[in-house]
Amino acid sequence: MNANPLDVTQLGRDVRAAESPEQAVLERVPNPQADTDYVARFTAPEFTSLCPVTGQPDFAHLVIDYVPGDWLVESKSLKLYLTSFRNHGAFHEDCTVSIGRRLTALLEPRWLRIGGYWYPRGGIPIDVFWQTGRPPEHVWLPETGVPTYRGRG
Fold first, then answer.
1. How far apart are CA 104 and CA 68, in angstroms?
2. Rounded distance, CA 66 to CA 76, Å?
3. Which residues, 6+ apart, have CB-to-CB distance to 112 below 8 Å?
4. Looking at the annotation, which residues are catalytic?
5. 28-131 adopts what CATH topology?
6. Whether pLDDT at 149 is above 60
């Protein structure tokens, strides 16, 4: 008998972060409120990856909003997935859009957006925004709460 009725492999277990985003396991669980539209938000203010050219660390404040359909992202797996970028070399745009696309493929949400607010290196902050389309009109969609760069922190 499976002791885990949600059929997730990481929750409640000692799991190490994957070596790369491609190896990371993102998991989903059934949405018990699938009959209604609402926004779920994940904020990762200490996201890190590596510059693919210099190998220097890049830092971002990520905000992920989505209107779930039948599935929710299991939060521990999301944390481990995001952590897997720490040794991953990719440009800001690639990291941000890849995360959004992978979540969309897994969850098939009614709507998803991701904002990547990247801290500057070389004096230029790069903010990257991606979404699947228009959000449902009747959902409350608060501002991300991340100001434009003015010594963000």
1. 10
2. 17
3. 64, 65, 66, 67, 100, 103, 104, 131, 132
4. 51, 58
5. GTP Cyclohydrolase I, domain 2 (3.30.1130)
6. yes
Is there a binding annotation on residue 138? no
Q: What are the pLDDT digits (tens) for 40-54? A: 999 999 999 999 999
Q: Which amino acid does the sequence have at 61?
A: H
pTM comes to 0.91
Q: What is the dihedral of CA 87, 88, 91, 93, to 10 degrees?
A: -110
Q: Are 44 and 96 in contact (CB under 8 A)?
A: no
Distance of alpha carbon 17 from alpha carbon 95, whole angstroms: 17
Query: According to the annotation, is 46 in a ligand binding site?
Result: no
- Give domain limits for the chain: 28-131
Query: Is 74 within any annotated ligand binding site?
Result: yes
Tokens representing residue 153 in the block: 């922190």
